[in-house]
Amino acid sequence: xxxxxxxxxxxxxxxxxxxxxxxxxxxxxxxxxxxxxxxxxxxxxxxxxxxxxxxxxxxxxxxxxxxxxxxxxxxxxxxxxxxxxxxxxxxxxxxxxxxxxxxxxxxxxxxxxxxxxxxxxxxxxxxxxxxxxxxxxxxxxxxxxxxxxxxxxxxxxxxxxxxxxxxxxxxxxxxxxxxxxxxxxxxxxxxxxxxxxxxxxxxxxxxxxxxxxxxxxxxxxxxxxxxxxxxxxxxxxxxxxxxxxxxxxxxxxxxxxxxxxxxxxxxxxxxxxxxxxxxxxxxxxxxxxxxxxxxxxxxxxxxxxxxxxxxx
Length: 312
Fold this sequence. Notes:
Low-confidence stretches: 149-154, 301-312
Mean pLDDT: 78
Structural class: mainly alpha
Number of strands: 0
Largest sheet: none
Radius of gyration: 20 Å
């Protein structure tokens, strides 16, 4: 994608910011499900609020939209990260522990986003990228290993894990398509959010009853779901994809688990134990290894007088 030191630095910064925003969003989903919100409630807040926020931005950019952002592509992306993604992701939270959610879904996103360019475009992973992904996976497993495998409802945790596999795979496909089609971040996010809200709103009105919770709880989840998860995080991450490509940008969702563990301290009053802390360190190290080529690129070149050729 975008070449140059400035573009690489900006892309890495945006990827880290997106991972932090998604970590906040994941903790918000956990809080919402604990308060009594259903998957449908969280989905309508995610896409409805995001659509309201981003609609004016889409209107401003309407005449400047690139030809790559077509209606069929916007509809396809809405089917990928719209209601199907929200249903799988939010349903999984009701069936499996939080640790499974923040490990399986981002892990699948990372793997799918890195495998699709290999399978479909003939790209190759560098040694650093392969080693970094392996270390990241070890860190994610360390975070999840501490938690119980079930939620006390028999084998329902397995179904929840499958939901996270599905949602993570859908997000990996989204990462790949955003990079392949080189779509604009704000306009694409706005279009997919609006289309998702328009599609899902009639079903929500006809078949679901809003959770009987205080207005303050709805406002809190509107911020978590629509403003952070449905708008800001996707825009920031899509911008990172445009600068780094799907493979490298696809590594940043794997930082969501360790960040969620840390953010659970102030937001959910949950302190990580020694094993979870170790997982945070390992996963972070895996990302650093994967970004080794970036670090080498950013490192200033040293002047070597022996390599100067005398052309007199």
